[in-house]
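Long-time lurker, finally posting.

We've been working with Aminoglycoside 3'-phosphotransferase (Bdellovibrio bacteriovorus) and I want a structural starting point before designing mutants. I don't trust myself to interpret raw outputs, so I'm hoping someone here can both generate the structure tokens and explain anything notable. Sequence follows.
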Amino acid sequence: MKSHLPEEITQLIQADMPWEQVNVGESGDSCFKVTLKNGNKAFLKTHANNSDNYFTHEIAAALWLNQHISAAEVLADGSQGPFSYLLTSALQGKDLSAWVSELSNLEIVNICAIAMRQLHMIPYANCPLDQKLQVKIPWAKQRLHDGLVDLEDFDDSRKGWSLERLLVELDKNIPKSEDLVVTHGDFSLPNLIAERSSFSGFIDLGRAGVADRHQDLAICFNSLERNLGDSFQTEFLESYGLITKLDEEKLEFYKLLDEFF
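Top reply, 14 upvotes:
Generated this for you. Predicted structure of Aminoglycoside 3'-phosphotransferase:
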């Protein structure tokens, strides 16, 4: 792969330095930690089945979000042969799942809640990134049609479900309204970077955009439970501070919707 990188990438990275594969995250892309010619670290994402616009949304999200909140910056992108490439800056620290053994549960919860509050307080009216259900549901159904939904990766509560049942339940439970904010779209611990208890910024922005706040809340609670053994919803809401009560039906719907991704 190194010998087939597009020029936009090769002019920035040191060719003689090893690549370190990054195994966390659920985007489905391959990701490598690389060294830039200026000595700084960066992350190179690659995607097979080359499409000229595969990283278009993530690039747009990074450019827009960095005007309002800390997120990985786009350094270069390009395509060569069967691959698309995206080179982004490395934020200070490591992903939040890597801090679980060093920070207390409540410190982890607090970092998540404060980061989400900062994100959801960004005015969304001028955000060009549309991830509302009118966009997200057709995208989910297209992924199912294309064979991209992984039956083996369902949450425990949906283990053994068929794709047909998943689709029926999706259509049956679509919320009647959306409490819109700017969302990350995949608000899980591996997509938050921190330096100990200090939040550094967001990565993996391929699903970021305007959507219901429960999109982020549902995935965050799942991630907290998976990493900490509990979702700590009460403690989270105290730090988050933007709502006092969760919509349980919406939480379940957005967990269901996430199975398509």
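Before you design anything, note these points.
The longest strand covers residues 41-47.
The CA atoms of residues 76 and 147 lie 30 Å apart.
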